[in-house]
Amino acid sequence: MxxxxxxxxxxxxxxxxxxxFCSNDSAILLIEDGVYAxxxxxxxxxxxxxxxxxxYALIPDIAARGLTGRIADAIVAIDYADFVxxxxxxxxxQSWY
Length: 97
Fold this sequence. Notes:
The protein is α/β, with parallel strands linked by helices. It has one domain (2-96): Hypothetical Protein Ychn, Chain: A. The protein contains 4 helices and 5 strands. The chain has helices spanning 14-21, 43-51, 59-64, 80-89; strands at 2-5, 27-30, 54-58, 76-78, 93-96. The protein has a 5-stranded parallel beta sheet with strand order 4-3-2-1-5. The chain is globular. The protein starts with a strand and ends with a strand.
């Protein structure tokens, strides 16, 4: 399953709810304000990495928020083409907002 999170983990429970339902073989994609959860050395990034082997963050949203170069190493930064590819690879997609 592909889980897409578009809200910041600060003041919103979308990421917590996502983590309750995802498994190690799931993929999580952080978009829009969700990319804040990918910040290196943050509690949210540590939780993401511990719960899921495949965590991604959308490059245009990282750049738009001035976070380039500040994303945890274990989280893969992807572009829109990769986003489409992830959607094609997963038969089930759940958005968390």
